[in-house]
Amino acid sequence: MFFKKISKLFLIFICFANFSFAKDFIVLEDGFDSKNSLIELFSYKCIHCYNHHKFGTLNKLKKELPNLSYNLYPISLADKRFGKELNELFAFAQAKDMQENKDASSEDGFVHRLADYLFVLHFVKKQEIQNLNEIEQIALNVLNVSKNELENFLQSNEAKKILANYEKANEFAQIYGTPTFIVNGKYQIKPEALSSMQNLLKIVSELSKNE
Fold this sequence. Notes:
Layout: H1 2-22, E1 25-27, E2 37-42, H2 47-55, H3 57-64, E3 69-74, H4 83-99, H5 110-124, H6 132-143, H7 147-154, H8 157-176, E4 180-183, E5 187-189, H9 197-207
Parallel strand pairs: 2-3
Antiparallel strand pairs: 1-5, 2-4, 4-5
Protein name: Protein disulfide oxidoreductase
InterPro entries: DSBA-like_thioredoxin_dom, Thiol_disulfide_DsbA, Thioredoxin-like_sf
Keywords: Signal
């Protein structure tokens, strides 16, 4: 009888724990085809995204959860003038990182360098991109890619797939804004659950075990 009571209490505890954990995220009906991954939806004009960048959130998560891939998906809606062109630069950067077995958590990767340049431009130098010529200069100076090389890349299936994911990211960013973290392409963590780095690590670790 005693053991039955203990078992019952244990089951209640497990159910309560699962219920509490379930409040930390939502399940996306039509997410990304991205298993074993963490995606951060971000805008270089978002101060909270900038703080995560300075803190090195993705890099710290990578050290604790090395078996996941890490990606930054830019939200083009946050930059109505040049969102499309910047998405194209991030797509190229992501493709280059993949070729070199790097991802957005790699501080020497192309995605990280591009994000860093834009964050510094906006928050440190207090400057805005004025025209498409500046976009070309960013591509050349940060990514070492010419306009012609970029245009050729954008015709590839790889580029089209990456850009399609970026476009879909706009939809999910409208739920909680930026930054938004999505695990395994389908579990979107609620902002109120991001109370600390330890809590984020715990949630990502648990969600990454799910298909």
